[in-house]
């Protein structure tokens, strides 16, 4: 359900500014416009006093003995210059005499000189000691300093430690943690920032500053495109609700962003958009170009031509210096296409130059899509030729729309020629294009060519097959009575857990009964094949595959049961990662979660997988968890001693495709996700066994393997048979 400004009830609990003293806040509570119960009043005053704790640190001269003062001073001087392992050894050596007061002084001293990393390590060592007593003020001070230094993971550890000790973190801790998450360009940080913000209000009872509301809202609407940001609508509505109920000024960007998010929803709520427009106008904020374009987008989704044209008129009348954006033309073309007026869409497309708006690839794609859906193929072909002459890319969506129209009309020769043009102009190859051509070959009874094309798709990792490919080929094999091919395809579908189309079930059952086999979809025993193992090791070394362990389920159920799964992660702005993502998703399809498989089966597998997806929990992944990861919750990747036996040319190829790059001079560079010295020695051994000389260099927290000259050429020759794309000039 979409949220509106009346969804949340008016809060009945008021919290005074946290900068006030405990006495002032207690007086504030007593002066509220209602009569709180004694229990309520006592709890609120207690909460105020708990967050008012002052950090008490003994000065160095106040420590009792001279030798103690000397040793503490030595620790303050020595610890910041050491790495984690050496620092831990130094602290372990002081166990006989050191106390919490001593280490509290060390932590605070390091914070004063801005050695926040050292402070965190000393604090982490201190909390593991048997004599440690939780100090809320110290934890708050440390968390705030770490957050201001943008160390969001370490700040979160201290934040969680405060919660585990039954305390509510201070408002400053919540604030700095949210800002630290927003400042980190790491996937998942925005979701964590939203979760901490919500806890700050609902659990902590705080009222964030206006700047925090605006910063989080800005991050939500600036998170890529509208398609990727639309999932944050509920969170954006919650921020808007908090701004209104806190009597804070609602900025123009908040109204614009909220209407923008609503316009991208699958189910558009025009009533809510109208309500936001009224509130914006009542606040004295005029309608801007962005707001009008959002309304056109929303009305186009609802096929509301009148609203689209009315808003378009307002957009044109904004001023002579403001040109309508190309997206507004796209939405107008789309709405006329939906009501079956393709020529009107073409007229809008041709009017763009007169309005001073140049054509772009999106406008070409939309008008070709409208024309092909209306089966106006003559105009679509002219537009396609015009698009190819401009040199704009990508061309694949327009080729798919054109080929789909040819398939519907039975123009198989035109489809074949379009397929050949697409294959020559578009790289890497597209699976949907191949599926359309495969379907055409089956319909024209060119069975041998269809078998050859299907086998080529299977062999070529850049294309691959999905549920739709298998069903098309299965139908052709059943029609051609090639029962050996039927059995082969059905076995593939059974292993991959693809659904057989209902139209083929009866005949398939008959064919398998002739061979004394029954359809048993759920009797497959999952097992990694050799190729999957090699791919998995390559992605683990590159950092693209990680083990996820469900610890709570592991403790709740049998501890000997498997709770390990593999999580694949791919970059959103990397073309090679986009290709690799589709290939890995298809190659490990039988291992994916049921929800992921159902989503793919609905569309025949033609939708693009998410940048992150996981497998189911299975015992087969226990081997990788034991070999490649350290034990415990704070785990890191390690390279096992026998890695030289498991690394193959295919492993190196997937490692290179995920995180490698080729420099302008022809050298090859690979990033290694493991960071310890002995791990790097084992990795180097893998290359030396293939007579490849390499160099290791550490840059930041990452290690890089470099191959130069003839070693780089030999490396590329080794991995060439397993590459999805052979010409790679990438900078991951």
TrEMBL record:
Residue stretches in coiled coil: none
Location of the Homing endonuclease LAGLIDADG domain: 533-715
Ranges for the PPR repeats: 360-394
GO biological process entries: Group II intron splicing; mRNA cis splicing, via spliceosome; photosystem I assembly
Keyword line: Repeat
Matching SUPFAM superfamilies: Homing endonucleases
Pfam family, one: LAGLIDADG_2
Organism domain of life: Eukaryota
GO molecular function, one term: endonuclease activity
PANTHER family: PENTATRICOPEPTIDE REPEAT-CONTAINING PROTEIN OTP51, CHLOROPLASTIC
Protein name: Putative Pentatricopeptide repeat-containing protein
Species annotation: Zostera marina
